[in-house]
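Job type: complex structure
Entries:
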Amino acid sequence: MFECSKSLGPHTWVHQFPIAQSSRQSPVDLRSSETHFDAKLQPLNYDDKATSSRMLNNNGLSFKLSFDDSSDPCVLNGGPLDGDFRLNQLHMHWGCDKLPGSEHIVDGNAYAAELHMVHWNSSKYSSMQQAVTQPDGLAVIGVFIQVGKEHEHKELKKITDLLPKITNEGSKIELSGLNPLLLLPSSTAYWTYLGSLTTPPLHESVTWIVMKEPLSISKQQLKAIQSLYFLRSGKYERLLNNNRPPQPLAGRKIRASFK
Ligand SMILES: CCc1c(F)c(F)c(S(N)(=O)=O)c(F)c1F
Ligand SMILES: [Zn+2]
């Protein structure tokens, strides 16, 4: 069978991206002792459009669902955010076999996987490329994923059913009519803190919004995710793309929308 391929260890990133050792890095351990309830935090607001998207096994590291953010954008606002943020892509981080795969952890505990929905600040910037380097450029919603009963909305199923069709690096497939709103858990409770991309170039441009309630998927769905692999120098390797360990909070405060 395939072995779990380890991407170049995160400890090597600092040579090319010195910001890796800066004070606004992600992911972090969401420790209850460091979180503070903030009554001023608004509920997240999504204009619930079903949008077209293209599923891609990108650079053999993960799969990415890209959304057309130029015409009929899917817009997020509210929560801790000032202004409108357009959904640009969503992707996932997972483990391998028994290894848990979430990037954020909660009081030291990891989940099986973590979904990231990446949005850029369209009130201040004109593209994702321009926003990705700005301190208020991005908002990423993180949703923990655990194995349990199959995802009730079937929205995640639309994604996992297609994964066997993009098992080779660079393969793409159209997926229209996905409603990102339905990928969010029923509870609106979230943590928020100022952080960074969790993979190079590690820009400190992300307002993180991590949902407290995990989504449940079936073992089969997790297997479909974990069986994503790519051909590297003639060898089939499975992906393990999640291994940035929690980074120092360095004095940052984590706000909670719930008591
Ligand atoms: C520049 C493309 C990109 C990533 F590669 C990425 F890993 C993340 S992450 N894991 O922090 O959500 C982003 F938000 C993102 F915009
Ligand atoms: Zn991510």
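Summary: Residues 10-17+26-247 form a domain with the Carbonic Anhydrase II fold (CATH 3.10.200.10). Helices lie at 13-16, 128-131, 155-160, 219-226.
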